[in-house]
Amino acid sequence: MPKRVLTGVIVSDKGEKTVVVNVERKVKHALYGKIIRRSKKYHAHDEGNEFKQGETVRIEEIAPMSKLKTWKVLDRVNTHATPERVDVDA
Predict the structure, then answer these.
(1) In the 3-class helix/strand/coil scheme, how is the chain assigned residue by residue?
(2) What is the domain partition of the chain in residue ranges?
(3) What is the Cα–Cα distance from 80 to 32, expressed in whole angstroms?
(4) Distances (CA, A) of 56 to 17, 39, 87
(5) How does pLDDT run across 1-60, given as a tens digit for each residue?
(6) CATH class belonging to 5-76
(7) Between the N and C ends of the chain, which has fewer C-beta atoms within 10 Å?
C-alpha cells in the first residue's frame, strides 16, 4: 500500500526532533453544498531539527515512532519561488 503524503504548514517546532504540521483541506458541506475548510494537526519526525515554524512542508506516513508520531517530514515546499527571468527581444 502506498504511503500517504500531505502538505501543510509547521505551527510548532518546540519539541526535540518533532514538528507539528497543520494540514488544511477543502470539503463540500453535505447539506448546503458550501465549500468549507477543515484542518488537522499531525506530529511529524524531524531528525535534524532543520525545519522552523511557518515553513510549508510535505510529510509522509511511517510506522509509529511514539504515541503521537506516525509521520516524518520529507522536504520543504518552495512557496516563494520566483519565476525564471525571460528576456524578450522586441
Answers:
(1) CCCCEEEEEEEECCCCCEEEEEEEEEEECCCCCCEEEEEEEEEEECCCCCCCCCCEEEEEECCCCCCCCCEEEEEECCCCCCCCCCCCCC
(2) 5-76
(3) 35
(4) 17, 15, 31
(5) 788 999 999 999 999 999 999 999 999 999 999 999 999 999 999 999 999 999 999 999
(6) mainly beta
(7) C
